[in-house]
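User: Fold this; tokens only.

Assistant: Input:
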Amino acid sequence: MRTLPTLLLVAAAASLPAQTIQVSKDNRTIAITATDHVIVQADIATVHIGFLAYGPDSPTTYATGSRISNAIATALTSAGVPAEAIESESQNLAPVEDYQLQHLSPAEQAQRKFQLTQNWTVRTTAHDAAHILDLAIKAGANQSGQIDWSLADENAPQAEAAAKALQDARAQAEKMAASLNVHLGGLIYASNQLQAEPIRPLLRAMSAAPLAADQVAPLAINPRRVEKSATVYAIFAIE
């Protein structure tokens, strides 16, 4: 990691005369494009939680939804989740479509005339993701589970990927220079371009055995790994 500041300084300094570089017999250079990547485990989790509630009419459905909504919010804040980490995504109270009721009994249809849905995201550490999801589900969040994984510091792995790519570029340039029986000089220009960042899943463990309702353990959730890639275009002098 000590090489990262050097890379950034060289790239910044070289970017100024980049437009005046001329490739000719009087200014011999070798240009290389190289790509490398870094894989790190996510340390931030954005947990998606929500619920769906039914009722025979709009006021009853709203009252049920309000009770569940506030129970979920209280469970999270009582556990120490900061209010600013909880963000509302959507909430909707609407009649249930007839086609959704056609396979239900008349009694069930009468109790499902309206539905209320509400969704939030909760930003937390990757370590606490399972705990947050567990709290929400046990408080009534019956439509929950998606987790978005990310990094608290996006710049460090990107810089590391760029540094590795630059090292690869120099290694390729040295081989090319050797094949031409010339000596590779210093770096005179470098630029990098960030690439797509796929998320690499880890295997998830399965729960061992059923527990009593009040003893259900949180789901076994492992943070995913995030890949950061960079492509470097480097120009080296030939001596």
